[in-house]
């Protein structure tokens, strides 16, 4: 039976006039029917959020914390339900879907425990004055999320927004709507009042634009492409509302010749193959010191040959999530060939019996790459790695920073001084040393340059979901 996903507005399911079909990536066949939202649906959601705001904003923080903690427990209790949806809509291996859902639960758990965090400070103005600051919610917050990690990204934005006392109108990607709807339903079952969290489904050009433009939205958070971010940024600038952007990356993963060789090889694999490379943090530019480059590439390729790609529950790498992205990655195979890069693994679309008609692609590694090539500069968002050799520390830093992006970077070295020097010099919002994509819900995430601005995750996110007020009293 085909699953149908509807809006969730003011605590109840709201059907749409029209629906569209979201394909199942592992088979390439039609999947769920998804509500096609309108500006009227967005307006209903915002008005519901406005009605719910006073009670949610003014309740004791500890009461908000209890509900967020209950949502975390409920997500874990429904793990199999969430995982089945993420697997069908996103093409993820089962282990990965469950891992991302666990992280979603951790966001609610983490922020549920932070609701009583300090809310301001006192300022000394001398005798006769009492001055202090307050951190207050914005009001109704719009959260727009991408298709690569649906419920994980939704929880990352929604949990701190709610913890700070905001109400939320969220739009997931039209390709992966199911788990965000289920999240809202689960939250309601945990006691979240109607209107506090609303989900409107549909396309970005219609629903996303309507959320950003709605006069009731007081703050926006967007994760996705630079193209869409520019459009949202124009509207936010015109409306003069705050905006958090978490965008793309072309992150350098730097391996020095004194690194633990085996650990670095395994880390280089993990850096670009997880989620079939569809991660903005992915370490897709592998910078290797020339003295070990050939040996490192050989070891990397041998390890990658053992990685299972396919629809199986135990596969390490699943499918590309959307057909458009599946076709886009293949275009880069042609671009790489035309630029003169050498494919030492993969580099061409193929069909394997176990893949059927699913949108699977081979793991691909390119050498003979220079940093001015398109495959080294543009975010491919697939399981494609470019290898670039470097001479010394200064050369590594120069290449690492020669990019329009600045989301993350990896450093592999046994030299503690070098680790700190390079971490300070590389222009990126998150630096991982001797492990790639280290950290968790506690560590703040934000980008430099065209990777965005503002921060998600950690205590820092709460500052981006609150506004500061200063009160000064003459005694």
Automatic annotation (TrEMBL):
- Where in the sequence is the active site? 246
PROSITE patterns documented for this protein? ALDEHYDE_DEHYDR_CYS, ALDEHYDE_DEHYDR_GLU
**Alphabetic keyword roster:** Oxidoreductase
Coiled coil where? Answer: none
In the UniProt record, does the keyword Signal occur? no
> What domain of life is recorded for the organism?
Bacteria
Please verify whether the record's keywords include rRNA-binding. Answer: no
Q: Which residues form the Aldehyde dehydrogenase domain?
A: 17-471
Family as reported in the entry's similarity comment: Belongs to the aldehyde dehydrogenase family.
PANTHER family under this entry?
ALDEHYDE DEHYDROGENASE-RELATED (PTHR11699)
Q: What is this protein called?
A: Aldehyde dehydrogenase family protein
């Amino acid at each position: 039976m085909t699953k149908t996903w509807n809006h969730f507005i003011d605590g109840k399911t709201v059907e749409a006039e029209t629906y569209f079909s979201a394909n199942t990536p592992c088979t390439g066949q039609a999947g769920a029917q998804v509500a096609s939202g309108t500006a009227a649906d967005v307006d209903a959601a915002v008005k519901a959020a406005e009605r719910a705001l006073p009670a949610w904003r003014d309740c004791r923080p500890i009461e908000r914390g209890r509900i967020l903690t209950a949502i975390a427990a409920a997500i874990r209790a429904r793990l199999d339900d969430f995982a089945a949806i993420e697997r069908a809509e996103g093409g993820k291996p089962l282990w990965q879907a469950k891992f991302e859902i666990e992280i979603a639960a951790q966001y609610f758990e983490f922020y549920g425990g932070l609701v009583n965090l300090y809310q301001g400070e006192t300022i000394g103005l001398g005798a006769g004055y009492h001055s202090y600051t307050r951190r207050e919610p914005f009001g109704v917050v719009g959260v727009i999320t991408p298709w690569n990690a649906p419920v994980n990204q939704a929880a990352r934005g929604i949990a701190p927004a709610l913890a700070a006392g905001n109400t939320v109108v969220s739009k997931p990607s039209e390709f992966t709507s199911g788990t965000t709807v289920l999240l809202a339903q689960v939250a309601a079952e945990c006691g979240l009042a109607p209107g506090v969290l609303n989900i409107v489904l549909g396309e970005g050009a219609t629903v996303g634009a309507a959320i950003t433009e709605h006069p009731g939205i007081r703050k926006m958070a967007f994760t996705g492409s630079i193209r869409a971010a520019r459009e949202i940024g124009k509207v936010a600038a015109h409306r003069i509302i705050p905006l958090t952007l978490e965008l793309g990356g072309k992150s350098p993963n730097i391996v020095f010749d004194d690194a633990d060789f085996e650990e670095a090889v395994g880390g280089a694999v993990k850096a670009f193959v997880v989620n079939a490379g569809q991660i903005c943090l992915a370490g897709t530019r592998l910078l290797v010191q020339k003295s070990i480059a050939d040996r490192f590439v050989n070891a990397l390729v041998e390890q990658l040959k053992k990685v299972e790609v396919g629809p199986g529950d135990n596969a390490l790498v699943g499918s590309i999530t959307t057909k458009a992205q599946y076709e886009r990655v293949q275009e880069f195979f042609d671009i790489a060939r035309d630029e003169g890069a050498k494919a030492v693994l993969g580099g061409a679309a193929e069909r394997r019996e176990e893949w059927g008609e699913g949108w699977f692609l081979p793991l691909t590694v390119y050498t003979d790459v220079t940093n001015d090539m398109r495959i080294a500069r543009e975010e491919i968002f697939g399981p494609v790695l470019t290898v670039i050799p470097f001479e010394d520390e200064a050369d590594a830093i120069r290449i690492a920073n020669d990019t329009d992006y600045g989301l993350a970077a990896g450093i592999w070295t046994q030299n503690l001084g070098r680790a700190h020097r390079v971490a300070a010099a590389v222009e990126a919002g998150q630096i991982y040393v001797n492990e790639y994509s280290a950290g968790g819900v506690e560590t703040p995430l934000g980008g430099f340059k065209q990777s965005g601005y503002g921060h998600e995750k950690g205590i820092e996110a709460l500052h981006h979901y609150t506004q500061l007020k200063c009160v000064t009293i003459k005694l």
